[in-house]
Amino acid sequence: MNQVTGCFITFEGGEGAGKSTQINRLANLLRRRGHDVLVTREPGGSQGAEAVRHVLLDGQAEEFGVRMEAILFAAARNDHVEQIIRPALEEGTVVLCDRFMDSTRVYQGVTGNLEPAFTENLERVAVHGVVPDITIIIDVPAKTGLERARKRGSKDSSGPDRFEKEEIVTHEKRREAFRELCQSEPDRCKLVDGMAKEDTVALTILELVEAILPELPSTGAKSGKR
Ligand code: TMP
User: Fold this and answer.
1) Are 22 and 11 in contact (CB under 8 A)?
2) What distance in angstroms lies between residue 99's CA and the mean position of ligand 1's atoms?
3) Residue 157: its pLDDT value, please?
4) Which residue's CA is minimally distant from atom 18 of ligand 1?
5) CA of residue 221 to ligand 1 center, whole Å
6) Is the pTM of this model over 0.85?
């Protein structure tokens, strides 16, 4: 275990943006450089949250309405934060999380038409002070993303989940909402062109992460971050 303070990096974007590929690439690279890295995802990532994941993704919660779904995402998130993410950060781990609070802002808040006060309150309770140091938003047109997600679904024969099934206009609205997040929180949220070559996307992400990552003691002085 190294002695640096942890770093919380989240990845966001529409369906089929290429988040998992990029997370794995970044994780391998950071590990080779000597960082302790935890790769996790939402909804899920802890025992309690994984129990809620299938209820949300196979559509069982859909009939109870978007508020119910948002509360379930928040419950899963809080368990994930308290059981897994916060302890890992306290140990100096670099945490790479596939989706986090911004997915709720966009999917339930914007395209679910939930009133901002409701999602803001849920977010506060769910994250309980654990906010990403940087959020990489991988941007692809909805049509391209859905085609990629469809291919992936037919490969692992999982089929589209409750959210992938929605209309293309809804997916386009989400893309816009993610892009707007980068404008409203430019320090935290960084837009990356997901249509670029995989290597180019990986390099862009690495440069963004290097700019905020605390250095390992052997490679330089501690940045004192977090
Ligand atoms: P994924 O594992 O393929 O990313 O699927 C997760 C799905 O759940 C994706 O369609 C986005 C959706 N989602 C929300 O609607 N709200 C959330 O807060 C999170 C974390 C995910």
Assistant:
1) yes
2) 7
3) 80
4) 104
5) 38
6) yes
